[in-house]
Amino acid sequence: MERAGFDLMSVATNHIKNCGISNCGDRAFFDTLDNLTRVGIAPVGAGENLHDAMQPVVREVNGVRFGFVSLGQLEPRVFADEDEPGIAVLNEENLISAIEAARQVSDVVIVIPHWGPEDVPQPNWSQRDLARLAVDAGADLVVGNHTHVVQAIQEIDGVKVFYGLGNFIFDQNWALDHQQGVILKVTYQGTEMIDYELIPTHVDFDGLVHIAGEVEALEILNRIDEASRSLP
Length: 232
Fold this sequence. Notes:
This protein has a single domain, classed as 4-Layer Sandwich (Purple Acid Phosphatase, chain A, domain 2), CATH 3.60.21. It is built from five helices and 13 strands. The termini are far apart. The mean pLDDT is 94. Pfam families: PGA_cap. Belongs to the CapA family.
């Protein structure tokens, strides 16, 4: 991943403590954080306790400080608390606190929530309420994940919300839409987001990710467009 260009990774997911079919406690959790850090990829959204998990990761690009926070819901077994390692818990209070903390050290705040129901292109009302809350709290961009299929895009008070980018690398080859996703390429001029591009992808049975072909790419983008236009 480091050679591919990743330098930051959201780890606030329901899979962060997975360890095959065995129970290995928190070993897999800490191994993941340690291995990412070892190769120069900063994990965001998890830590030794809730305070650590809530901390933003800041990357400076051309003099602009981009602050990233990530929070997740869905499986209490991976939630951090005051003295328990795990992920930053996505709720209203934590979301506001994380964004406010990031705002103090960043010029642009990007929120990466792990949220929503699987397998549906439309965000539920919980996602939409949290997206509104994030924007009101000062988020400049919201990029969601977890749903395994691409979801709608919405603009809230000038802030883009990408509810779900689909699967990038995931062994869910029983359904075509679970082998599809998009890479989000965002262009900033100073602190202003001036453009974005969705690059459709396809992950093969061998786990390799490819840029989707023309026909498949159009189908993926059309599904996102339809879901976006259908938002109530």
